[in-house]
């Protein structure tokens, strides 16, 4: 096997609208193909029509097994009825914002979890938006120095309604 060839796979999900999914449950998987070194992978599925799904399209996600592998690809959809496939409109897709932070004992910003009265010392941020309502996924991650492979520091995220 040539390890320089990107292993390709395909995931088809129940679409929840016109945006890319930020997460999914196994129950939302309509079809999938395990990553393979082949030049072509395929999956056959039976799907409900757009009218039966309240105008919610399916979401097709091609991928390489590992991140940062470059490769051109083509998705061909063959069915017994007319189908279309197109990229998700970037104007309708999710928007994101990011802020970098620091827990530091010297700066008194390492307050610990809400189990401790010092939690108030943790960095705090205000979230604003202009829409009436929206769905949000929060992702908190910690940066590790390159020399640390295993880290036992547990982190958490608390969101208060203001």
Structural write-up:
This protein is an all-beta fold and 162 residues long. Helix content is 0%, strand content 12%. The protein contains no helices and three strands. Strands 2-1-3 form a three-stranded antiparallel sheet, with no helix packed on it.
Question: What is the averaged pLDDT score?
Answer: 80
What are the secondary-structure elements, in order, as H or E?
Answer: EEE
Count, helices: 0
Which sheet architecture does the biggest sheet show? 3 strands, antiparallel
The counted number of beta strands is 3
Question: How are the strands of the biggest sheet laid out side by side?
Answer: 2-1-3
Distance N terminus to C terminus?
56 Å
Binned, the helix content reads under 10%
Poorly predicted tracts of residues: none
C-alpha Rg (nearest Å) = 21 Å
């Amino acid at each position: 096997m040539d390890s320089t060839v990107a292993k390709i796979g395909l995931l088809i999900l129940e679409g929840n609208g016109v945006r890319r999914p930020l997460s999914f449950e196994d129950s939302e998987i309509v079809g999938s193909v395990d990553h393979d070194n082949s030049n072509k992978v395929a999956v056959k599925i039976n799907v409900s029509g757009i009218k039966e799904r309240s105008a919610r399209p399916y979401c097709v996600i091609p991928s390489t097994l590992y991140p940062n592998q470059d490769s051109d690809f083509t998705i061909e959809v063959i069915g017994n009825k007319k189908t279309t496939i197109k990229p998700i409109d970037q104007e309708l897709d999710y928007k994101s914002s990011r802020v970098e932070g620091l827990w530091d004992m010297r700066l008194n910003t390492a307050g610990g979890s809400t189990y401790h009265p010092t939690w108030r010392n943790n960095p705090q941020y205000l979230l604003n938006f202009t829409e009436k309502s929206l769905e949000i996924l929060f992702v908190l991650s910690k940066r590790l120095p390159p020399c640390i492979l295993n880290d036992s520091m547990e982190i958490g995220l608390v969101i208060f309604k203001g």
